[in-house]
Batch of 3 targets.
Target 1
Amino acid sequence: MVQHIVNGLTLGSVYALIATGYSLVFSMVGMINLAFGAVLTIGALLALQIAVEYGMGIGLGLLGAMLACGLLGWLTDQSAVEPLRRQRLPMYFALLSTFGLNMVLQNIAENVSLRSWQAEFKPFPAPFDITEITIGSIRFSNLDLAVIGTVAVTMVALHFYMTRTWGGRAVTMTASDSEVAEVMGVNTRWVIAFIFFASCALAALAGTMMGIYYGSVSSSLGSSPGMKGFIASLIGGRGQIAGAVLGALILGLMESLAAGLIGSGYRDLVAFLALIAMFLVKPTGILGGAQTR
Amino acid sequence: MRRWKLGIALPLLLLIGSVVVPFSVSLYATRVWTVAMMNAILAMSLSMSISIAGVVSMGQAGFYAIGAYTAAVLSTRLGMGAPWTLLFGGLLAALAGILLAAPSLRLRGMYFMLTTMAFGEVVRLVALNWTGLTRGPMGIAGIQGIVIFGRPLSVREYYWTALLVAVMCYYFCEFISRSDYGLACKAMRDDDLAASVLGMNVPILRISAAALACLWAGIVGALYAHLYSFVSPTPFNAWLSLTILVISMLGSLLDPVFSRRASYFGTFISAIVLTWLLEGLRFLQEYRMAFYGLFMLLLVVFQPQVRALARSLGSYFSGKERTSVAA
């Protein structure tokens, strides 16, 4: 039982990064970026390619993956979201357009990785030696600690950026009222493009950590966590970073408990049922305000 | 006058064309045409629930799967025949639609869409994990084909059956949209408060509109089970739901081309076009899905242009400027 909770925490903290990415975008344009899962995969594949195949080390691999995925995020905005915003179309059309983009990216990732590696899975060696730590009956490794630590540092940095810097305030302002922000001299188009960049860079970080954590990378790495991330962000409260983290931890715990106590086939089912239940009880999420139509 | 001609002649031409299609093409192509008909039914019923009630479902594959599995289980366990499996498949899917729509009445727009999408995934995952009933990833094999006059249907006859169901679905959708019920739904879609003041039962209207689309999805699902004699969870994924939604979206964009008395004709055509497009992209081999995704993206992004093109085509055919009706 306690063991499942420890596993759930690690899983939940990876989901927290992904959910934060969704939440950032949601707070800007009020929609879910369904191309996120494919970007996550591409991030992990690129990090592996740079770090291991080119032998440049995990630091450069991560940096390259985050930059490339950030650019993909910017591309997502420019190709699938910005045109809808410009034509003042309802934002739920973005669900369709980003899903289309997801198919394109996913398909390219599959084919390129299969062609260049000649294998579906590719091992991702950990950048340090893994040692098991046992306290009482609970076992975890320093890898768990590294994952949780990286996520915690990233979230704290993000929080400081959002509340203490000029750029972060411009983001917050655009999220709460883009027209007022525009009047106050904020270039909201740049802000939104930047948020897409930042959220997809986070996706690359999450993807790389998952690759290291599971020890291997495949082109289907991102599809399920991509879904879980948006479920977590909607459960916690739409458009809020704190909500995203809360929702992700709850989802991670629920999944690992379900997998451990009922059966591993039910972990995905639990996530989707939790989303439906949340929508029926309180559509705005745990930390969300009153529902506005 | 010309509008009348187009409104009658085009469907008639298409109907004759569709009936004789299997005589001129290979068995493989007949199968694709059958799939096109099944997609048309799924998309037309979804179009109906979108256009009359504003109920957009991103989880039609889930209801499709419910119909298919119902037919599969009834056929293999109880030895039930075709008309009954279709009926029960449809009814069970409609029941599932009611069970989903009733609690989610409060949800609007994107939240409703995401709930239906999650529901579609739930159905697939249940089918994957409830091995006692569905045999999980192995699927249910050995479903009997449809037998009429003591003889199983051939590939061509399956196509005609699907065509018949599609034509029935088409007239059903047209009839519902024009009926008092459809008008009441449209009033509710435009302003549910005003509609409820006028004495309409808004919850019932919303739930029933969703259930009607699910009913047809279930019927096609049962047809699918008999056609392939095998069901597994794999094909009923979110991708299929999105494909159906895109067909119905292209259909509504194409609508102004055709007579106003044929609101679902565009969806019918777009089902054929998109099904064949997906087949036609086979030469791209493993990059096929990328191009389909790209097409989807472009269609959504350029929809005002597509709509304008369809409008001008429509006014060209009908010979006069079409007064735009508030959709």
Target 2
Amino acid sequence: MAEMTYLQAISDGLREEMRRDEAVFCLGEDIGAFGGAFKVTDGFIEEFGADRVLDTPLAENMIIGASIGAAIEGMKPVAEMQFADFIACGFDQLVNVAGKLHYRQGVSVPMVVRLPSGGGFSGGPFHSQNPEAWFIQAPGLKVVAPATAEDAKGLLISAIRDPNPVCFLEHKGLYRHVKGEVPEGDHAVPLGEARVAREGGELSVIAYGSSVPLALQAAEELDEDIEVVDLRTLNPLDAESILASVEKTGKVLIAHEATRSCGVGAEVASLVSERAFEWLDAPIRRLTTPDVPIPFSPPLEQAVLPQLDDMKEACRELLAY
Amino acid sequence: MSSSPTETQSVEIVMPQMGVSVAEGTIVEWSKRPGDWVERDETVCLVTTDKIDVEIPSPAAGRLSKILVEPGDTVDVGTPLAELDASARPGEAHPEEHHEEPEAAQATEPARQGETPPAPSSGDGETDRSGFHSPVVRRMADEHGIDLSQVQGTGIGGRIRKRDLVALIESGGETERPDQAEPAQAERPLHIESPYRPETPAPAPAETEAPAATPAPAGEGNGAPPTEEILPGERRESMTPMRRRIAEHMLESRRTSAHCTTIVEVDLHQVVAARREQKEGMARRGVPLTYLAFVASATVAELNGHPILNASIDGDEIVYHDDVNLGIAVALESGLIVPVIRHAQRLSLEGLASEIARLAQRARSGELQPDDVVGGTFTITNPGQFGAVLATPIINQPQVAILDLEAIVKRPVVIDDESEAIAVRPMTNLCMSWDHRALDGAEAARFLAELKARLEGWER
């Protein structure tokens, strides 16, 4: 075990798989000589060479398209979007080609798209988005969003080994702020399994990504019997873990930084009301960013993104209900 | 539960001065409960004055700590309505919370018998929710044979929470109460045959003093007989505050004034021609020119020569008003409201038309201020767009008369007495209800005759 930041853990996982499997390579904007906008691939070109660490033009549809082609031919590409927001330019390739090839032609597309996402650093409307719901709406894509350093490494390794296209959302706010013990060497965390981050009996906070540390801090500061479930994989959802927690507590707060409407929270709420209605002791609540673009202005950004105080208030209200 | 009541910074929310003429207001409802977090300028309650509903904004951000005036109560301007803890932070527990320890509070009955029933936690402004049971509460009550009417809830509004039942079951509470459990159990067989959930006992005589007697809210589905008998095919809704006020005012007026209605028939062909000429010009300036504006203009001019109709009655005295403050009745979906055009005698036809349109718009969008609807000296009502031709309106107290403009209908009329020629003319009826205490029929008829003459001979 070594202590790593979330960012170092991603880097470690990617390096581990590239060392283990010749078929794995990465591509993206400025990931080679420059080492990536956030330095995830720092030192990669020196170790693996320019053939396996490809600097591409600023053309996301080309990055995704090339990845699909390589994947069909037996490679395992790991594409980096410099910011998750830019995936919109490669959207058609991703949802209409990568996501559907298996269903149309029985062809496996084992690729990973790394998506540095999220706000909180005054990045404005084009560099702060949490677009995970777009991909959940497109059948054929798996969607992963780790919250800890250990999961960042372990889920990335599983994503690379998965035969399906996987969208891997790395929250930029966690890159250097989240640290943890990470197993060295081969460490795979299975996709599709949630994790109970904190045990509790009075309220379930279902969260992922940046909302997990927020929920844990709120639970500690409130000093209440709150359970925090870290979804880790958003598609496929781990319904059993969600339902087990709800059946234990009877109260549900779903928290994510992505916008509200038709988001993961809506999906989880629907699942709970369909399958755990008789265990509910309170209305299902969501804590999300409202349906607006993320503003540049720091106070405005703070006003729209869920904050610790918002999390505590939502927990408090549900506990009192 | 780590809350320690440190020094709190209490801010009072007071009944605001909503207009020069408003001295008191009535709370309609609270949109926040004690314990709720409130942002600055967020609405905390709805207040109704004589005719207008006003949303009261919070003067500061904080946690609502206490509600001092209950819905339905009327208090003077300046009276504190609620207290806000401005030193609170969102997410913190507040001192009022958790004051009942679950274990102690659950198995209420033997200990608390004869005390206040659990329902009235509404004393501090909370809605009583003790009758609502969440899915999990119903399920657990079913599984463990718990009589929910015997459990005191610790949730918001006295709601029974899952934790209340868990505590009860863990303490073995439901079996340790033979004196209470017996009657509840005795009732159960009756309900096994009924279509209702077996968990709810019928109101047994033995329990009449128990909290079960508190009527459950509708929709609770427990099979208890409703408090009021509702026949099939009926539906009951309580009146909105506005509806109640209209009802009060109308009855009060009927009781107060000696209503009498006089009607004149008016040929509006000159007015129709004048409107046709001026309509476009005014429309360009954003003013819709209606027939109501013509009638209002003529009425204001005639009131000048008939001060008894621009008056009000105060005890044994008649109060004559120098200004004509003209009330215009506006129909809303929710009721009727009468905004007032002040100093109407100073306004031209276009000025009146513009004011009528402005006030009607404000009335429909709910933007009227309390001062907009008080101080009228004469009222015009105009429901004629639906085609009715006669009405006997009710006087708007304490005024002396109200004029009703009905539909304008084309009719053949004799236009020249000598030749007895007949022509088709746009005719309407002006129906005026007046107070026989203040004036007599001759005066009312004279006023209407002059009003008729002014409209029929409208000078363009």
Target 3
Amino acid sequence: MAVAATFVIAASGLVACGGSDSKKSDAKAELRIWVRKPPGGNTEKTDDALAAKFTAQTGIPSKVTALFDDFDTKLQQAATQKKLPDIVINDTDKLGTYQQQGIVVPVDKSSFTGASDISDVSWNAATGADGKTYGVPFSLQTYALLIRKDWRTKVGLPEPKTWVDLDALAKAFTTQDPDGDKKADTYGYVIPASTKKGYASWYFSSWLWADGGDFLTGAPGAYASAINQPNAVAAANEWKKQFCTDKTVVPGSINAQTTDAHPLFESGKGGIYLTGPYNMARFDKNLGKAKYEVVQLPAGPSGSGPAALGEGENIYLMAGSANPSGQIKFAEYATTVEAQILGMAGNTDGNVVRSPANTKVDTESVRNDPRWTSFSQWLTKDARYIPRVPDWTPFRQDSANTLNAIASDCSLDVKAQLDKLNDDFNSLLAKQGAKAK
Amino acid sequence: MLAPTTAPVRGGGHPPSRPVRRRRSPLAAIRRHGAAWLFLAPALILFLLFKFIPMVRAITMSFQKVQPYLGNQNVGLTNYRDLFDSSEFLTAVWHTVLLAVVQTGGSMFVGLVLALLLEGTAKHLWFIRTAVFLPTVTAMAVVATLWKILYFPGADGPLNALLHDVGLGPSQFIASPHTALVSVFGVGIWRSAPYDMMIFLAGLAGIDRTLYEAAEIDGATTWQRLWRVTFPGLRPVFGIVLTLAAIRGLRVFTEIFLLTNGGPNGSTDVVMTLIYRTGLDQNNLGLAAAGAMVLLIATVVLTLIAQFARRRGRDGAP
């Protein structure tokens, strides 16, 4: 009984037997492609179509597997069993983790066909802390506020230009019954503030940068923590204010992941949601295109201009593949103009390429939607990327824990919490060998 | 086992033991127990593959920095040291113990009350018992989703609406670090009390009816009958329920993972959620394996204590 109790985890594949990864190279071996997309959804269909086109052109067989919940858990299990897929298309911020674990192989940019069509900013997001390239940029995105336009008209407030405007709007949404059902059941902000996967930190990063704050200062290899500096403290105080003082956040957000947060916006619980353009097709369908508007996150009171998290998806070439040349060929194909347009899937919710990594693609001709154009402009102009440390995951996790604590226990002192986080950051930097001397 | 073979030898003049032992060759043993082993083999092979080999691997991993494609490094006791240095782990241990104690106590109490209320053979009791047992057979994922809805912390949440009707609330339930753990206890007790009830019902059925009749003739009150007849009769059942519930409490995972994932602010983190997060979210399999080891040792110790206590209780009984 005791054995059974404890080894649920062990038996679930965490510690399977190791196999051999010294396979023979075979240029015709099937490429197993894992994409972080909901199985059975339209995005999976687009990825399937993309892979089918690739197979038709090169004769290399391919098989797409869509996984969404716990994608990385499953990838870790595959890694432990040394049965990794050949290709993984996943978030840019996974790069450090994958590289640290040795489960991705570097890409030789100089021999990569079409390398010059991809912008330097994108290539940077595929570069490890050691300066080598560990992925091929596939899709890019930034984040902006989706605001319930019908509610805003109802409460008679202008489009928010400052954080003060935003908070006033959130308050009006919470107190003035914008959905007119005579019940106090609407709120301002929808926030995925769970610590799971570090969502709280991921969401907060845009606010931090927009208020002139930062996680770290310095350059790759010589960083120092900046998380307890005045601007960062100001941004965290704004975060606390929304949860604790104004109480304008949808209740329960504290345990919400993004998958919990989307329904809160589309079902009319909250009216302001900082999220990515990929949700527009979904909200158009479930909420209605006319009911909400896309607004750039304004600069905070201490910030010098608007800013938001920039990220995207890379094509990772996984270690131990039987077909290394096929891996490169797939990455080269997926970044061609043809494949990128296919991945953008017009204005539909099947898009796997949000904004194209290939700069030769004319976004406006593929998507005749001004909202997408705005997103693309904000991406090039104001997007900020996570610092290039060897592994960002523990930083994200620690800051998410702190933010979740601040939001859930209103008696905590923000500065004291950030001082503690500052120490954590500095010791993490030292541990990863990325601290300024 | 030796008894039948030694018996005929006893009458002869030879010292009995030696020739007998020589006759028990390994081949004979195989012949004698072969069928038993054959029948056991499927289960044993499955256990070997899915329990014992992973267990041995987990033990080695707990002393390693695990990186499948770069080669694991032996790091000695570093993982264990990191584990006991981290306040997160110690908090998780505290929560786990608290959860095991409260949930075990709570569901045993509620289970016993339910069993006493619903004991009997009438048709309607059978129906009510089935209804009461439903939470235990419902999938945990469904239960968690349901309670997440019930616990919605806004004033318009279902439970808060009820609280409002009696002039209380609104409570934050699982959204506040002050009430999250208690809310999780609630779900746990709601779910496992019926399970305990079933075992108690079986125990109650085993109590000799004539004892109740005798007590009644002697003029015992309901409370005295409960205290002098029912509880002593249920003693072995208490032991079983306690052991099962305590172990269930220690390895609690699914409800917490689905309800709060350890949050908010780590207020519901237990050892299992921490192991999962460390191992699979943060890819630190060595540290996670060390955590699993500590949990294993705790479970083994707890089981041994429970067994020891039960054996002593049995020996001490008249």
